[in-house]
Write a structure and sequence with these properties.
There is one protein chain. The chain is built from 5 helices and 4 strands. A 4-stranded parallel sheet has the order 2-1-3-4, with helices on both faces. It has a single domain, classed as Response regulator (Rossmann fold, 3-Layer(aba) Sandwich), CATH 3.40.50.2300. Helices cover 41% and strands 13% of the residues. It is globular. β1, α1 and β2 form a beta-alpha-beta unit. It is of the alpha/beta class.
Length: 155
């Protein structure tokens, strides 16, 4: 559609989804497509609302020349009604989102795993929270591959 919308979602909205959001935003900006996309990320839970991304996520992004000012928020009913795509990180995200979307009257969002777009077929983007810098780097690389492929498909 002329102004496609996208939302990126994960459980706490401080590790994976801010990385995916920032990566996608940069790809969109590099391709001069800002007028076509609205990009955001949100959490399924309300644990971290208002918090900045994990410092390791921020430093990983910075290493790749990407800044973000994102603050965690929880997904809303309106998100399901306004976004075309809600992309999530793992099966439990997917279950929770599908359950929430069933409570929304006119859900128009297509809910799917971001990993379905991975050319390397890594379906699940694992939460790096209990891991180390290398795990955040892995998330970054997965998000980059998936977001590129997603953008190519819908651009």
């Amino acid at each position: 559609s002329e102004n496609s919308l996208e939302s990126l979602v994960s459980i706490g909205n401080i590790c994976r989804s801010p990385i995916a959001e920032a990566v996608f935003r940069k790809l969109v900006s590099d391709e001069k497509l800002e007028h076509k996309w609205r990009t955001d990320s949100a959490a399924v839970s309300d644990w971290n609302v208002g918090r900045f991304p994990d410092s390791r996520a921020l430093s990983c992004l910075r290493n790749h020349g990407i800044e973000t000012a994102h603050k965690a928020r929880q997904i809303t009913k309106e998100d399901f009604q306004t976004f075309d795509h809600i992309l999530c990180m793992d099966e439990s995200n997917l279950r929770d989102l599908n359950r929430k979307s069933n409570q929304v009257k006119d859900c128009k969002a297509k809910i799917e795993l971001l990993g379905t777009y991975d050319p390397q077929k890594q379906l699940i983007i694992e939460d790096p929270y209990y891991g180390n810098e290398k795990d955040f780097e892995t998330v970054y690389e997965q998000c980059l591959r998936c977001c590129k492929a997603f953008l190519e498909k819908y651009h």
